[in-house]
Write a structure and sequence with these properties.
Elements lengths: L1 H11 L2 H4 L27 E4 L20 H7 L3 E9 L2 E6 L8 E5 H14 L5 E6 L6 H12 L21 H7 L3 E5 L10 E3 L4 E2 L27 E5 L3 E3 L6 E3 L4 H4 L2 H11 L10 E4 L7 H8 L3
Helix pairs in contact: 4-5, 8-9
Bound molecules: 2-acetamido-2-deoxy-beta-D-glucopyranose.
Length: 307
């Protein structure tokens, strides 16, 4: 009793006076679960939001992929945010497809998006969030991408690995990432050239099965990856979003009507089972979904984490 109160007293004293004696703050709950604090980043399965910025509640907005805001996605339990960037009037925006297509969906400037996430992270200090951004125009890492991160302040939270690529088993625990304050992981699908230390080359560390599947059984194969690490030393991501061929035009759009089933526990576990033989018998680290608020993707991910 006495011991406890002395420690409580010490812990409440100003850092500048007793800082050297007081142990670092230790997170006891990580991404909502105590058991995840001691698990390596690569050994935790997280729910991801595909085209997370393409948000609309209007069923006639055919190019939408999500129905709820970024903040609501995070509140729901999403811990990977995926998005695609293009320049519009010289400003980097998250948006998809080409300028004049009716499938254009402009989610606004990247800096606004990152600022929203930064606000959420500040209010939720025990959470690790991963970005998976795509860079189809090959925009400059140092002069286009990095300034958006810096303006939002989120670069201060970005994790810099000791070396690249990192094997799946080499990642720190969620607890140590949270304790160090470096709890944002940033992957880019192409162009990550090492010029900015926290912008990491996705395929050197993550492999993916095909995306835009129109087959609800999600046949698994290693579709995109990169060396030098062996496939088994990569984490893997399920592209668990189902498209439909729009009126036979060959244009693929995401299908909200199927989402409750697609994002159900059974469908996600079946997709996992299909990929596991290629993933060393392990679960995926990331499960990317459209319409994250439909179905029970969070329930599936909890199951994959053993809860
Ligand atoms: C984490 O490790 C456990 C035990 O080895 C394994 O069953 C599970 O698939 C792993 N999950 C991930 C995402 O690596």
């Amino acid at each position: 009793m006495l011991g406890t109160s002395i420690f409580a007293l010490l812990a409440s004293l100003p850092f500048t006076v007793y800082g050297a004696w007081i142990p670092q703050r230790r997170a006891t709950v990580c991404n909502g679960q105590a058991a995840l604090c001691s698990r390596s980043y690569g050994n935790v399965t997280v729910a991801g939001s595909h085209d997370s910025y393409a948000i609309s509640g209007d069923p006639f907005a055919l190019a939408r992929n999500q129905e709820i805001s970024i903040t609501s996605q995070l509140n729901l339990g999403v811990r990977m945010l995926q998005a695609q960037a293009h320049l519009r009037n010289n400003v980097i925006h998250f948006c998809h497809t080409s300028e004049r297509s009716f499938l254009l969906f402009d989610g606004g400037p990247v800096v606004d998006y990152l600022t929203e996430v930064k606000t959420w992270l500040d209010a939720n200090p025990n959470e690790v969030v991963t970005f998976l951004f795509t860079n189809p125009e090959g925009l400059s890492i140092s002069s286009v991408w990095a300034p958006a991160f810096a303006s939002s302040g989120i670069d201060q939270l970005a994790y810099v690995p000791p070396h690249v690529p990192m094997k799946r088993t080499e990642w720190p625990t969620l607890g140590s990432m949270i304790d160090s304050g470096k709890r944002v992981v940033v992957f880019l699908d192409s162009g990550a050239d090492g010029s900015v230390d926290y912008i990491l080359p996705e395929f050197e560390m993550i492999w993916e099965p095909p995306f835009d599947s129109t087959d609800s059984t999600f046949p698994c194969s290693v579709d995109r990856t990169a060396g030098p690490l062996a496939t088994g030393d990569h984490m893997y991501l399920l592209n668990h979003f189902l498209d439909v061929n729009l009126l036979g035009t060959g244009i693929l759009i995401s299908d909200p009507a199927a989402a409750p089933t697609t994002n159900g526990v059974n469908s996600i576990l079946a997709n996992t089972a299909g990929c596991q033989p290629l993933g060393g018998g392990l679960n995926p680290t990331f499960v990317l979904m459209d319409f994250v608020n439909l179905g029970n993707g969070i329930g599936a991910v909890n199951k994959l984490n053993g809860f």
